[in-house]
Fold these 2 entries.
Entry 1:
Amino acid sequence: METKYLCKFDAQGYRRATYLSCEYTEEQKADMIAKGFVEIDEDEWNYYVGNHGMGDNGTGYIRVDGKPVSAPPYTPTKDEKLARLESEYQQEKAKLEGYFNTALLMNDTETQEELKAEMAELADWYAEEKKAILD
């Protein structure tokens, strides 16, 4: 006997709940189907749980028009983009500050001036990138 599953998918096609079909009576199954569940076979279920790989975009599978298809690529949220930008900025700033402190200790005023200009460029880049994310 082939294993069947009762699955509920959200509006984008992502699986949100799964139950073994054999654990329910025909009446219970009909009630679940009326509530938006669909009955799928084991092969289809294997797509949604990753047993057929992670799809073309590495994000798994969703159900579209009654069949599994590759889920769309992940799109970072605004907060994630801001966090990544902040991390990049802080890393680059710390590196430049380290170089500047070395130039300061060596009394290398020419390098200090160059690093000040690079820090100003970095600050401008950061402000532009942050504005682009927030807009």
Entry 2:
Amino acid sequence: MELSDVQINMLASLVLLFLGLYCVISKKNLVKVIIGIEIMAKGALLSFIASGGANIQSVVIIAIAIDAIIAAVALSIIVNAWKHTKSLDVTKLTKLRG
């Protein structure tokens, strides 16, 4: 049994999704968690591209732009967390104050 290109791309997107999910669940460093979220987003975009269609390309380009904005906001939150706690450990962020 030979896999088609669409099936290979879908399998790769599933691998990326599970790799990102593992990274989000298992890591305690905020930077590694954000990288895991980005990997999951890229896996989802790969599945959109693999499904095909002419309109899908414009949706993926918009999603990449939104993903870059989300990454910038997340990194600014990481910088603020570093300023307040001097650590990037997720467990240190349980005592946040307004």
